[in-house]
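dumping the sequnces here before i forget
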Amino acid sequence: MGTGEAKIGVFICHCGLNIAGVIDVKRLREMASKLPGVVVCVDYPYMCSEPGQELIRKSVAEHGLNRVVVAACSPSMHEETFRQVLRSAGLNPFLLEVANIREHCSWPHAHEPDKATEKALKLIEMAVAKARLLRPIELKEVPVARRALVIGGGIAGITAALDLAEAGVEVYLVEKEPSIGGHMAQLDKTFPTLDCSACILTPRMVQAARHPNIRLLTYSEVEEVARAGGGFEVVIRKKARHVCEDRCTGCGMCVEKCPVEVPSEFDQGLGPRKAIYIPFPQAVPKVAVIDDEHCIRCGLCERVCEAGAIDFGQEDEFLKVEVGAIIVATGFEVMDPWSLPELGFLESPNIITHLQLERLLSSSGPTGGKIIRPSDGKEPRSVVIVTCVGSRDERANPYCCRIGCSVAVKQAVLLKERLGPEARIYVCFMDLRTYGRGLEEFYAKARSEGITFIRGSPSDIEVMPDGTIKVTVFDQSTGKLLEISADLVVLIAGLRPPGDLKDLAAKLKIPLGPDGFLLEAHPKLRPSEAASRGIFMAGACQGPKDIVETVSHASAAAAKAASMLLKGYVLSEPFIAVVDEASCRGCGRCEEVCEFGAIEVVEEKTGRLVARVNEALCMGCGACSVRCPTGAIKVRNFGPEQILAQVAVASR
Amino acid sequence: MAMSGLTDLMTMAKPNEALKARIIALLARGPDMCLQCGRCTSGCTAFRLLELKPHEIVCSAKMGFVEELVSSKSIWDCALCLKCAERCPQEVSPYELILSLRNEAISKGLEIPEALRDILMTLMETGLAFKPKKAVDREGKAYGREELGLPALRTGLSEQALMALMELLGGA
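..and the predicted 3d for all of it:
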């Protein structure tokens, strides 16, 4: 099959009026059926429908077709559909060529139907010319380890790891901080239900740590990633905590005795922590860690530790693991509003971010849940919350942070509750988009509680000599220029991709979108997968998300990964480079240009040099083929002969 | 500590929370629920003629700037068509708020526009909102009801009817 005289069938789809509304399908069919090698040409309203597919199957049998050209929509839409049709018709699925006469023709040329019809014919001619030269491709089953790596231990990573572990997949859960929990552990309450964030998160953290299928690697980072077989070989750096994890009981004696105080990252700088510390009371694992940068090596901790867990000599460890899938769940960063100096973030300790307010609201925070203005510890009587700080702003983040409006409403409600009905809470907004389930009702509740919502974004926030803050805002609803005198200003700062996401993406060889977040394989249909096989994404690393969306996205990523891993094998890629060893002279130029390390020039017993392709690593980019001086290395079905056959038709 | 948070920088006015509370006390849904969509003004009958902007009144009241509203002429421009109350997605009724503001103005003894006063007087005297007028033809000639063969209108309210009217209006 696939050799001898080509018997080509051409199947033209109307796509309703998408194609037939512009292109003269009848004329197209008449002309296409005269092309050399074409033995049958038919058109049908919807070729992808079941009767359309049946039409192809019948024609293959009736006319003994050995090549199929479908002229329809983009191959990214239905190529796989039609490959299945070929398979069920007894043909090798790679003897199919799709001519895209919709996205490449009827849609952009809707205003010139005659020319569009001519172009469609050309596209079909090109497809026919290539189809004649297609060769069958057999896919191999490559075994894949039933193990996964989850990078990031926030709610996204925890959810994905637990889902995979429950499905019987072994998981390495890697977190760069000393504890899992992520941003959700820093929050006081969650919108719109006002569930205590820690209360719903902590059990999941503990569950992840105890699950027999999950190996928790905190204070660890992914060092190297390489494709191997059907999966990946990953090197993980386990940073030295200088505290022995197996021995530490988390009693906290060391923390108490440590004489060095530095601002706590977990408390967003609003409170202190020691040089040896447990980041927060519910930390998992509840194991201390020594901050090397600030530790003065006084040895007090070592002296008080009854478990003998302190180990100043501990060094970074490197773990090499083999996994079949990787889920990236590295979350987001809250931007520092100092880049917008007009908002005065650096001018006063009483101008804080929403994440700092979360720490003030939290009962495990630096003030035990008491709302104070940081400058003097007094209770604020007037608070202004400003939304869209750095979000929807071409000078910072052009995109929406997606959670800011709901955070503003939630924090306003909590502030009103804590500070009493006399306290004045103002929310200055550009738009208030509380779009999730229960959130519109939550916003209504906030309005009914006397929180003042002002449609307008302040341009200047100034600190007065007495320490109060002056916010000037134009209220679009009344046309009034208002001045608000506030004790505390909360900036709902935008969300950004984590600073190290770019490096990680480079290690994984997956692309970022223009916003710096990971780019999914398809914005609608494959939102939790990377374009390259075996890599998935969960949560805000793919773009800002609230907790509900994050958890759904993470479960989706886990399900996608599990469905791949539980099968036990992956199919090899069809369009990879192959070497015609007879014409290869082993010059090694292909090896030089290969970005994926997939090509190696080896010496045969005879002493002859020849290029070999590692099928698991080749991504089919074709760079080698372009570089090869003898035409020995080619991507299957995308070789010079196939491409040039199309070019010849196109340039005629 | 910053106690009274808000200042209108154009008038230097501060919110009057006590007065706001009194004015909105009788409203089914107060101005606080306003979403600031502007639908009331988009449809306002009086906006086209008199530039009445119900959303501005609602939002000013929401922030407590009520004194300026009580003494403002614009609250008397409302034609009481109730369209704003019908269309408000939050069931806030700008019309009711405006009535409440008018009541406050009356109880403070503020002057009401002359045209409205005339209508009121006519009503009290005749039981009709407008005094009967003569019909005028294209040549400018005026005709009374008699000349047109129409029966005379009954004018002047009986003592009893006047009492009933006062009662309806919530008066003595």
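The CA atoms of residues 505 and 536 of chain A lie 12 Å apart.
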